[in-house]
Write a structure and sequence with these properties.
heterodimer; A: 289 residues; MetI-like fold; 2 domains; 16 helices; 0% strand; B: 298 residues; mainly alpha; 14 helices; 74% helix
């Protein structure tokens, strides 16, 4: 009996082997966990296409019987969803552009340029990593009030402009650039700015994508800071808009799920497209930004 | 003046010029506010001071004394600690279990599993919290239906003060396990196969291999990840804000929720800064444990 099983195990029909017990256990755990991870997101999407009667039906349904776009139509026609999508998009893009501009130059300099006080400055930044962003929020609110930046897009992106995480991420990557390459350009008479523009930037492109995805996702998903800075709903980003919507329309489940889908779908798509770059950032240093 | 400035800039090395913009921004919008928060926590900064700083006065440690004597503060502290202390081991256990499953040789479709398992972490927290409000709904939610299948009577997750925090922990584990899973997976992949082989030759079963090869192999990373997660969980805010508004009976009211409400609803910015600094002290304590333990691992 045993040899018979082993023979089957070794047969290469359909290029398949009988999996071992650990593989079977791991496989079933993964299937179960994947279903658990995906189910709420699946249900959200499915329910967002249900007409009101189906979305509120008891017991809850998995599939829409008569799929409809009514919930989305209601969101965009009467709940200003279009504006919130644009607000979120604009805030996330602005945060990404500013974060790249500030962190790339600084990260590169900390890795490759010699200057007085470099090590001390860097140690100070490392030490500052333990400071939680929330600590700055109360005085920052007062500062932005005096700069007339409350209820503006700039006010929302202020914490993303220059970040310790961004500087470390870029520095770590830039350390691997060969010094000879930079030196050769300098010998050819290139100024430091030209070296940066023509040689460093093209070589830093992978880490720019990584930092870009990180910042975009963080700015898109951010909640507490926009909640503090934005009191005027003209400037609301999607998380603020759907949190406010849920306080008035909680019983309207289809509508809420459509709002959640509009908020989550763009970041999921972006993540799936740029996964490789995102995971690199996550693993390098594993510092939380 | 502009000539002097030019001379000054010329004496700076290019490195200074490259780091200056980022450091300037960090100073204005990060480090200076930290100092500001420290000063603020010793003042009675309120809505009148917000309008005119002349209305501000220093009150020494009054904010801290007041906080430490306030039942609401201790309630928020207790809730936050409950969330962090129960939520972290659960999160880490799920992350480690799934990282080990992903690291098992012979399992197919790994990239697909990995991507889907990471989905919740990327999803917008507020939107996910809204979905989970419906997931844990008393009558309607899938969690109670699932429990019903195994014979557990329905639980009023968000309505019962005993179950509201477990509901939020359940949600947080679902939301966050993907991040630590990827970091632990990278650590597991660094354990050489030979270690497992020789353990097997020595007759070690799966459990003993887990205890004597896997756990020591990932211990430093596991410890780091656990402390970062505790620190992150101490910053609980959006989950209760969206799912329960801190209720019922303040059972999900957190430290950061307290700071937000105190500072931006009642405009007691001085008092709220003291809360922020107590939270900071807790995080410093956690990072101190981390530094100490890194030394002992090294």
């Amino acid at each position: 009996m045993k040899t018979w099983l082993m023979k089957i195990g070794r047969m290469k029909i359909w290029r398949m082997k009988i999996p071992s017990v650990p593989t079977l256990i791991a496989g079933s755990v993964l299937v179960f966990a994947t279903a658990w991870a995906a189910f709420p997101l699946f249900w959200m999407t499915s329910m967002s296409f249900m007409p009101e009667a189906e979305a509120n039906a008891f017991p809850a349904r998995l599939w829409p019987v008569n799929p409809t776009l009514d919930n989305y139509a209601e969101l965009f026609a009467y709940q200003h969803m279009g504006r919130y999508v644009l607000n979120s998009l604009f805030v996330a893009c602005l945060a990404t552009a500013l974060s790249l501009a500030f962190n790339i130059t600084a990260g590169y300099a900390f890795a490759k340029l010699q200057f007085r006080g470099r090590e001390k400055l860097f140690q100070a930044l490392l030490a500052a990593l333990v400071i939680p962003g929330q600590l700055t929020m109360l005085p920052l609110f007062f500062l932005l009030k005096n700069l007339h930046l409350l209820n503006t897009y700039v006010g929302v992106v202020v914490p993303f402009m220059s970040s310790l995480f961004g500087i470390f991420l870029v520095r770590q990557y830039a350390l691997s650039l060969p010094d000879e390459m930079l030196q050769a350009a300098r010998v050819d008479g290139a100024s430091e700015w030209q070296v940066f523009r023509r040689i460093v930037l093209p070589n830093l492109r992978p880490i720019m994508v990584t930092l870009g995805v990180f910042t975009f996702l963080a700015a898109w998903n951010d909640f507490l800071w926009p909640l503090i800075v934005l009191s005027d709903d003209t400037y609301y980003t999607l998380p603020l808009a759907i949190a406010a919507l849920s306080q008035e329309h909680l019983q309207d489940q289809g509508l809420m799920m459509a709002g959640a889908t509009v908020t989550i779908a763009p970041v999921l798509v972006l993540f799936i497209l740029l996964q490789r770059h995102y995971v690199r950032g996550l693993l390098s240093g594993s510092v939380k930004g | 003046m502009s000539y002097d400035l030019r001379v000054f800039v010329k004496h700076l090395s290019p490195g200074h010029v490259f780091v200056a913009p980022a450091l300037l921004i960090l100073f204005i919008f990060f480090l200076a506010p930290v100092a500001g928060a420290f000063v603020m926590s010793f003042t009675d900064f309120d809505i009148y001071a917000l309008a005119d700083l002349k209305n501000l006065s220093f009150i020494g440690f009054d904010n801290y004394i007041n906080l430490l004597g306030s039942p609401l503060f201790w309630k928020a502290f207790g809730n936050t600690a409950y969330f962090a202390v129960v939520g972290t081991p659960l999160s880490i256990a799920v992350s480690l279990g799934l990282a080990m499953a992903l690291n098992t040789p012979g399992v197919g479709l790994k990239p697909v599993f990995r991507t889907v398992l990471f989905g919740p972490y990327v999803a917008t927290l507020v939107a996910a919290a809204i979905i989970w409000r419906y997931m844990v709904d008393f009558q309607y939610g899938w969690v109670n239906r699932g429990l019903g299948v195994v014979g557990v009577p329905p639980i009023d997750w968000l309505g019962d003060p005993h179950w509201s925090m477990p509901a939020i922990i359940l949600f947080a584990v679902w939301k966050n396990f993907g991040y630590n899973m990827l970091i632990l997976l990278a650590a597991l992949q660094k354990i050489p196969d030979e270690l497992y082989e020789s353990a097997r030759v020595d007759g070690a079963g799966p459990w003993s291999r887990f205890l004597h090869v896997t756990l020591p192999g990932v211990a430093p990373v596991l410890w780091m990840v656990a402390l970062l997660t505790v620190a992150g969980y101490f910053q609980l805010f959006a989950e209760p804000y969206v799912m329960t508004q801190g209720g019922p009976a303040q059972s999900t009211f957190s430290l950061l929720y307290y700071m937000y409400q105190d500072g931006f609803k009642y405009w007691n910015l001085g008092h709220a800064s003291a809360t922020a600094f107590i939270l900071f002290a807790i995080l410093i304590g956690i990072s101190f444990i981390r530094n100490r333990s890194q030394e002992s691992f090294a």
